[in-house]
Amino acid sequence: MNLLITKANVLRADYSTEIADIAVKDDVIAAVGDIPEDFAADYIIDGRDHFAVPGMVNAHTHASMTLLRSYADDMKLMDWLNDKIWPVEAKMTEKDIRIGAQLALVEMVRTGTTAYADMYGPYLESVAEATISAGLRGILCRGPIGFMPGVEKILAANIDLFKNYHGSGDGLISILLGVHAPGTCPPDFCRKAAKASVEHGMNVHIHMSETQGEIRQIQEQYGKRPFKYIEDTGLFVRPAIAAHCVWLNDEDIAVMKAHGVTPVHNPGSNLKLASGISPVPRLLAEGIQPALGTDGASSNNNLDMLEEVRLAALIHKGNELDPLAVPAREALKMGTEYGAKALWLDRVGKIEAGWKADIVLYDMRRPEWCPRHDLVSLLVYSASSSSVDTVLCNGRVLMEKGELKTLDEEKIMYEANKCAMELINR
Amino acid sequence: MNLLITKANVLRADYSTEIADIAVKDDVIAAVGDIPEDFAADYIIDGRDHFAVPGMVNAHTHASMTLLRSYADDMKLMDWLNDKIWPVEAKMTEKDIRIGAQLALVEMVRTGTTAYADMYGPYLESVAEATISAGLRGILCRGPIGFMPGVEKILAANIDLFKNYHGSGDGLISILLGVHAPGTCPPDFCRKAAKASVEHGMNVHIHMSETQGEIRQIQEQYGKRPFKYIEDTGLFVRPAIAAHCVWLNDEDIAVMKAHGVTPVHNPGSNLKLASGISPVPRLLAEGIQPALGTDGASSNNNLDMLEEVRLAALIHKGNELDPLAVPAREALKMGTEYGAKALWLDRVGKIEAGWKADIVLYDMRRPEWCPRHDLVSLLVYSASSSSVDTVLCNGRVLMEKGELKTLDEEKIMYEANKCAMELINR
What we know:
Two copies of one chain form a homodimer.
Chain A: E1 2-11, E2 17-25, E3 28-32, E4 43-46, E5 50-54, E6 56-61, H1 77-89, H2 94-110, E7 113-119, H3 124-134, E8 137-141, H4 151-165, E9 173-175, E10 177-179, H5 187-200, E11 204-208, H6 212-222, H7 226-233, E12 240-244, H8 250-259, E13 262-265, H9 267-272, H10 280-285, E14 291-292, H11 305-320, H12 328-335, H13 337-342, E15 359-363, H14 375-382, E16 388-393, E17 396-400, E18 403-404, H15 409-424
Parallel strand pairs in A: 1-4, 1-5, 6-7, 7-8, 8-9, 10-11, 11-12, 12-13, 13-14
Antiparallel strand pairs in A: 1-2, 2-3, 5-15, 15-16, 16-17, 17-18
């Protein structure tokens, strides 16, 4: 199918903007600007007064936790986990996981996210199917807590998931090997997971160095910091993404660089849970390109990546008293192309001929887009994701003029609210 | 006129929520919940699936600077002021000031703000008239820079504005005496302004302790910190609001408490300009109730108060590593009732019989409001101001179901973009 977006303001790969047409052939951008004369469009989208930007990549979330949005807030981390989150999660059924993920998918499309990395489970097969059906890219893994009895079964299930779903949905789905965190996974489990990752050629998704408490705990238990601990178990032999990375020193950054571990910055969650502020300007100065994530909706409390882009652009300026820390353009790259690279997505994250057609059109006919001195500044510092008007992923139209094309929003919201209330009263 | 909002989820004054009707008689809330049988509604608004919350109070902004939104970002503060903002501001005409303010009014209504404190000028008469016509509460003052030649004229104009507009628009407008900042106003000017404030019974609006550089400068020039310096000029004899208050010590807080000076926290602007992070949890612990503001749209870059509420709830948790710092409810109070109190607005900021009918209805039929475990958490941590559906100020409907009733949005946006482009090329 040939799709043409006409006269949009396009964010080019070099971060200049220009009014141009975008030709999409099947899943790929065929041309930007000079459209070949023999390109016959089957479908035309009017891009006037819209800003065409690569789809957002949410590189760390727990989609099904959307059912717990607003269930428990303004609490201490361990009270929140022990008294609220973990007891309820233990009661989640396949239906809860599926409906929670569908609610997340609705919110992601509405806010311009076209790819997401999910760590959750069980029943991730349902999440994979829901993601394929919705048309987003899902980079999924389980999140085994190594000291829990029966954890080997979860590891085995994660490997089965890889065998059954990696590359499925016409390449929309990839499966990673999940390991929850250094503080919840003892060395023997980490070594087993590391061995499996190498044996099956699976890349790794792990929480790392989220809190000061975690650093202290691992140092007390193993006499080293979390990055060294995980490196020593072999879990960084395969490429990995590491969510949070709030508390880092020179040695940690050296481990990250030696193994090409990509940090995923979660500013909203790190602030809300009082974990701290990741040294993102330092990472950028080291040549590391952090991705961005929302974390779960129970600690954020939404899946709005534009908010994370804005937070990434704002909080480091204030924290380091440097108005040039993380400029708008760098923050937007973290939310798009750096995220795509972090998740090993091939030719995703730029609007460029030959790249995948993951494109979001923001409607600029709103006061917060006026006047239009600088579109990237307007997007990052002023607009909200409620401007997201039309979303393409892999060339498929997921939303057009605010109408979802692949998800039954009203039904999903009704069921999600019902599931959530039943779940917390179970 | 009798107006009835039916079956809304109402945020009560004690911060409980319940489904209730709200009866509005002229400018005042007549009843919440049990509506008197003889209340005959002239107009009914369906409040089902909407969250009724007091209108936001933006306690520090520069409305007309909305014309400079996205004109200059990611710059050092003095480069930004000297090379970009001040040269352009010097060229602003009456039309620029008026159209800039109208664009701000459109954005404020759309994002649920019903009262704002503006420091700007010249031509504030036009801003007052535009505000009365739009139906918001405007608490206006000039921003004289004391060392500029002819500054006495600006002080005199501010006093004239007070005589001509204080209490106008059926009480919507009040006029304060503006003094720009300690660093830009020498003692003789501050003393003149202080004398005028007492003579005319005018309350004061000033920027205070925004940057470390300001603290250093004032200490070098006068051998004391900004709060002591301004206190000694007599400018705190009358009640005052002090924007920013980022860098405070015990002595500063003692001055604030001694004179009832209310700080206005501007988290977005303070982060973006890399001013720092105000010690808001400390202020709250001292029994001070800070208001919230957006600052101007050239340093924010929008006038979205819900974003400031969210930032106030998030950044202090991360900064102080305390998940209980500034809970959602406290942040929302800062954006509503504390702001109204700070601006000396009588019976504004609560949905309660006898209080002014400044009410915003948020449409909750959206994924970010699902599931509905806790409405205040959903508003503060998940929703965006794009949920604002209906806005009342002083009993008048300014927006209903997304349609502006008092402002010609399309025309204003067209003119604002034209004015802005002409201005920067002048």
